[in-house]
Design brief:
- Pfam families: F-box (PF00646), FBA_1 (PF07734).
- This is F-box/kelch-repeat protein-like protein.
- By secondary structure, the chain is mainly β.
- The protein has six helices and 25 strands.
- The strands form six sheets. Strands 12, 13, 14, 15 and 16 form a five-stranded antiparallel sheet that branches. Strands 3-2-1-25 form a four-stranded antiparallel sheet, with no helix packed on it.
- A hairpin with a 2-residue loop joins strand 18 and strand 19.
- The longest helix is centred in the first third of the chain and has 10 residues.
- It is globular and about 70 Å long.
């Protein structure tokens, strides 16, 4: 028999391997290292990665640490079951307990240590699968006057991008002016560049902003003040600001009138089964509750539909996300539970943390950032790390 093994066959075999194995093989030879860290192989491996995974972050007050869990999600009897396949150690220490997670995309997590206090802190891109991270260079726009910074993470044509919006406080009132100053960081280029000629009317929710990435578009909840001489208060119109990562164009996704007239601080934006979803919190004589809405046809305002209401009893604090038709809820007692809207029952998932620290998003293993010093730690070679 011939000892010759076709290169194409080698590649097909390597593409089926998990990231942990590929890290080991990358130190076998220079040729294997060159192949495994090449952009084309990284892209092909990403497309073959498992899709039924999620990453979950929670902050445990007992050890004062952020914990990142890789979860296998399995549909089971109209609900879902989770299997914790590994845990990752975040490479940075927060000044206030835990980082704000901007978003997750193609195996990368974007974080910033800016919750409430530090709007100009460095932005971090981290790939937990390969235990590599990069701290982005200082941004271009850092005004001296009070301002807020809003970030978004996405991928366009295989290139990871971070968009940064800077809203400066206006001198004549307590609000932040529009349009914001905008700059974009591309991982391939390694620098920030300013985006000009923008007509952004929406202000993104100060400090408590969060993004939703869907179909290559980043979404944030925002609002537009309404100048009405007959109004007795400072009214505003709530809406969704959208940024297309590929052509770097801003747009707007309109909310239905019943939501557009609500205070933006009472709402949170999510992704659910490939659609935009929105949770509207309310308090009335019946108690505290939240309504779950979904946009059935993207971009069509009339397709917004209210699915169900959750009565926030039994210590329910906030909605964390949605998986397989169930809502993930954080409890004041620091438990994470899954709520089934059909049975209106919840079950404990055995994961604990402060209610505001919970974050969950879809996750795929990726080789991105592996070529930034790929020599593995001793634990990686011995099989003691990077499980999953």
């Amino acid at each position: 028999m011939s000892d010759y093994f076709p290169a194409d066959l080698w590649i097909e075999i390597l593409l089926k391997l998990p990231v942990k194995s590929l890290i080991r093989f990358a130190v076998v030879s220079k040729s294997w290292r060159s192949l495994i860290t090449s952009p084309s192989f990284t892209s092909l491996h990403l497309s073959n990665s498992k899709k039924n995974r999620a990453i979950l972050r929670h902050y445990d007050e007992r050890d004062k640490q952020e914990h990142y869990l890789l979860l296998e999600l399995l549909a089971k009897n109209g609900a879902f079951a989770i299997n914790i396949s590994s845990e990752f150690e975040f490479p940075m220490n927060s000044q206030i307990g835990y980082y704000r997670i901007v978003g997750s995309c193609d195996g990368l997590l974007c974080s910033i240590d800016d919750l409430f206090l530090f709007p100009s802190q460095s932005v971090i891109l981290w790939n937990p699968s390969v235990r590599k991270h990069v701290i982005l260079p200082p941004a271009i726009t850092n005004p001296m006057e009070p301002h807020i910074v809003v970030l978004g993470l996405g991928v366009a044509n295989g290139v990871c991008k971070v968009v940064r919006l800077v809203y400066c406080r206006k001198h004549y009132d307590y609000g932040f002016g529009v349009p914001p100053q905008v700059e974009v960081f591309s991982l391939g280029a390694g620098n920030w560049r300013t985006v000009f000629g923008l007509n952004i009317k929406l202000r993104i929710l100060e400090f408590m902003w969060s993004q939703v990435l869907l179909n290559g578009v980043v979404h944030w909840l925002g609002y537009e003040p309404i100048d009405d001489a007959n109004s007795i208060d400072n009214s505003s119109r709530s809406s969704i600001l959208a940024f297309e990562m590929d052509n770097e164009v801003f747009g707007e996704v309109m909310l239905p009138d019943v939501l557009a007239s609500e205070d933006v601080t009472s709402m949170c934006l999510f992704a659910s089964e490939g659609s935009l979803a929105l949770v509207k919190y309310s308090v009335d004589f019946e108690g505290k509750a939240c309504d779950v809405w979904i946009m059935k046809e993207y971009g069509v305002r009339a397709s917004w539909t209210k699915l169900y209401r959750i009565d926030l009893v039994e210590g329910f604090e906030r909605v964390v996300g949605f998986k397989y038709g169930e809502a993930l809820l954080a409890l004041k007692g620091q438990e994470l539970v899954a709520y089934n809207p059909e049975s209106m029952r919840s079950r404990n998932l055995g994961i604990y943390g402060t209610p505001r620290s919970f974050y969950i998003d879809n996750y795929v293993e990726s080789l991105l950032l592996l070529n930034r010093n790929i020599e593995p730690a001793e634990g990686d070679l011995n099989g003691d790390a990077l499980e999953g």
